[in-house]
Amino acid sequence: xxxxxxxxxKGQIGNRILRGLPGSEYEAMQPHxxxxxxxxxxxxxxxxxxxxxxxxxxxxxxxxxxxxxxxxLVEIATVGNEGMADLSVFLGLKVSHSRLxxxxxxxxxxxxxxxxxxxxxxxxRLRTLLGRFTVAMFTLVSQSAACNRLHTIEERAARxxxxxxxxxxxxxxxxxxxxxxxxxxxxxxxVTLAAGILQKAGFISxxxxxxxxxxxxxxxxxxxxxxxIARKEFDAMPGG
Length: 240
What we know:
Layout: H1 16-19, H2 23-29, E1 34-38, E2 43-45, E3 53-67, E4 73-79, H3 87-90, E5 99-112, H4 113-122, H5 124-150, H6 153-166, E6 172-174, H7 177-184, H8 188-200, E7 204-207, E8 210-213, H9 216-222, H10 225-235
Antiparallel strand pairs: 1-5, 2-5, 3-4, 3-5, 6-8, 7-8
């Protein structure tokens, strides 16, 4: 089964929000956009720090993570080339309440917060695009909360892998069981067991820190309904 994509080619604009802008508005933003690399595992923003920049991913995936007092990590959302981070800037906050971590390596267009807010104030189209993304992110966060409470580790792992697969340019991407366990807020043995079930079914292959999606349809069948609900919201966004 062919893999659905969140990204489609239109010139060299990889990010859907930027691609959804009128050409004149994007050209006006260009001098304020800086292409930055996003190596795996880099923290681009720490919880409790003032947000100096926003990021529009072209490739790769960013994880928004809640850090608990005891050091435990729980992923609350992911952001790929369909959106921007941190959305809190658009909503009027200056200080982040989550850690922003590079989950899958890639690159992004980075913009200073003040310049970004200036463009938001002047562009109705940009406000519309970001508002639509806000709705999609709210759906993702709410479904993730329900999923973490009600569904099995196998279903949750399948959902997470599908969301990641949607945002990368290949069926193979780097990931470790330790990292996936942290993102799902569970112990490593639980993730190893769930991944083993999915691998035995022929849906995925995992070797030396690299995950390969072998059977997209089978993986979708193993995921809970939370994936399809969130996916529908992102597919409905403009700029696809």
